[in-house]
């Protein structure tokens, strides 16, 4: 097998600094095995996007792999930066070092960083995994997501968690996912339902009291919270999950079914399993993409499916 050259794309801010010791361990392993690599440190928000765009356009190494050390947001930036470049088909590897690490969980790779590194170094060829493509019509913005795009409740939780004073402390204690859970109750007391229109195969569906509206590629969001168990990043489809709010009891029961991986039977739950759809909201709502904030505004988003080459051997 040809020797792989690794571009180590490292975000020291990921996981509230938890990525720093993980990066050092990864570097030690690569040095011990005498594997070739170059270090590219992400130093400010959006820098990972710039780094991978430069690599995709100007790489001269044979058999390159982008080895991302960070959270799901860092991975998102890496893939978006690589897209549209001359070498957009460079495989991406991922060592989970963030707060949530839902992508690793969702594709069945190890959540343990060093085991994940073993899965990367064991790989001999790339595998193809689905990712989501979005076009936000209000801003004429197009990009990709690896986990999900959420509007409403989950996005409000992400916003609160990202601005929480406790997030960095919990990350240092390796329980960063609890940050999201802490803010769930607070959001339940303050958020309100909102209208959503969904267009699938030319048919308009309208929901008056949406509370969760999440288009997902994997079963999880919010640091390991199961949203929809059947979501599969290899089936060529996305899943839109809408849960309406009629009252606290019906909403809680609907969410309990989803969290337990049961088949949804509640009238509050609506599932779309498709490769293309449009989601529109008319009110000001929070949005999140792969655990990163999208701001607050009305959304008009066209979703479709895409694919990405990943460098990993999930058999070990």
TrEMBL record:
SUPFAM superfamilies cross-referenced by the UniProt entry: NAD kinase/diacylglycerol kinase-like
Pfam family, one: DAGK_cat
Domain DAGKc: 1-138
Entry keywords, A to Z: ATP-binding, Kinase, Lipid biosynthesis, Lipid metabolism, Nucleotide-binding, Phospholipid biosynthesis, Phospholipid metabolism, Transferase
GO MF annotation: an example: kinase activity
Family under the similarity heading: Belongs to the diacylglycerol/lipid kinase family.
GO biological processes: phospholipid biosynthetic process
Gene3D superfamilies xref list: 2.60.200.40, Probable inorganic polyphosphate/atp-NAD kinase, domain 1
NCBIfam families: YegS/Rv2252/BmrU family lipid kinase
UniProt name for this protein: Diacylglycerol kinase
UniProt key word Transferase: yes
Record bears the keyword ATP-binding: yes
Cofactor(s) needed: Mg(2+)
SMART domains assigned to the protein according to its UniProt record, in alphabetical order: DAGKc
Taxonomic superkingdom: Bacteria
PANTHER family assigned to the protein according to its UniProt record, in alphabetical order: SPHINGOSINE KINASE, SPHINGOSINE KINASE RELATED PROTEIN
């Amino acid at each position: 097998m040809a020797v792989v050259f690794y571009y180590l794309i490292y975000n020291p801010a990921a996981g509230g600094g938890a990525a720093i010791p993980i990066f050092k361990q990864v570097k030690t392993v690569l040095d011990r095995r005498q594997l070739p690599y170059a270090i590219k440190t992400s130093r400010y928000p959006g820098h990972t996007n710039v780094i991978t765009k430069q690599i995709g356009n100007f790489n001269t190494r044979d058999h390159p792999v982008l080895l991302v050390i960070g959270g799901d947001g860092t991975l998102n930036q890496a893939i978006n930066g690589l897209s549209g470049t001359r070498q957009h088909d460079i495989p991406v590897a991922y060592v989970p070092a963030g707060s949530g690490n839902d992508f690793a969980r969702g594709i069945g790779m190890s959540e343990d960083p060093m085991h994940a590194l073993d899965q990367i170094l064991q790989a001999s060829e790339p595998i193809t995994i689905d990712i989501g493509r979005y076009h936000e019509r209000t801003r004429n913005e197009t990009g990709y997501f690896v986990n999900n795009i959420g509007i409403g409740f989950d996005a409000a939780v992400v916003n609160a968690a990202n601005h929480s004073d406790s997030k960095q402390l919990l990350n240092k204690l390796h329980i960063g996912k609890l940050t999201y859970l802490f803010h769930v109750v607070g959001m339940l007391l303050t958020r309100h339902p909102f209208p959503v229109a969904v267009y699938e195969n030319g048919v308009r569906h309208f929901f008056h009291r949406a509370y969760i509206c999440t288009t997902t590629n994997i079963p999880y969001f919010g640091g390991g919270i199961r949203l929809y168990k059947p979501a599969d990043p290899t089936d060529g489809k996305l899943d839109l999950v809408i849960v309406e709010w009629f009252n606290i009891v019906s909403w809680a029961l609907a969410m309990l079914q989803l969290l337990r991986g049961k088949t949804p039977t509640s009238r509050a739950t609506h599932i779309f399993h498709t490769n293309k759809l449009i989601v529109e909201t008319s009110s000001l709502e929070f949005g999140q993409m792969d655990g990163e904030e999208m701001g607050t505004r009305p959304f008009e988003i066209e979703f479709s499916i895409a694919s990405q080459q990943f460098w990993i051997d999930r058999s070990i």
